[in-house]
Amino acid sequence: MGSLSGKKVVMVIAPANFQDEEYFQPKVILQASGALVDTTAKTKGEEATGTKGGKARINLPLDKVDPHDYQGIVFVGGPGAKAYFKDREVIKLVQAFYQAKKVVGAICIAPTILAQAEILRGKKVTCLPAEAGKLIKHQAKVTDKAVEVDGRIVTAKDPQAALEFGQELVKVLARV
Length: 176
Description:
By secondary structure, this protein is an alpha/beta fold. Helix content is about 30%, strand content about 25%. The mean pLDDT is about 95.
């Protein structure tokens, strides 16, 4: 794994019902590789709760996320992530990171957020199978792989892929 010393990543979670493994496992891998990781959510609170009761501290308001401060953004899945599917602020954030040539990651249902931002056209991606139709509708090439990397876009299928997702994020971030 590459060293990410000095690189910054922001992880976007739902204020409630984010998928615990999809947040905590990649975060630990990113931090172990030297990345500085901020956590944001669209919430007034300072803590978010996962589907399995995990608590995540929100240390950055969503409206303060600036792509120029980070090398990558990662969207965490779980039922709560549906709140971001049509959120204009979040969609604009995805587009800003993509246009700034940053790494954009998403796991489970969260690749749907990337599809809504229109950045997946012609890209190979993976997601929770129930979401595949939404990605195909946006002209993404959906595969059945646990983790898929297409350029600077890293997607993963489900919680079982969280460790591999974290490892692939490190590899791609090490190249930017």
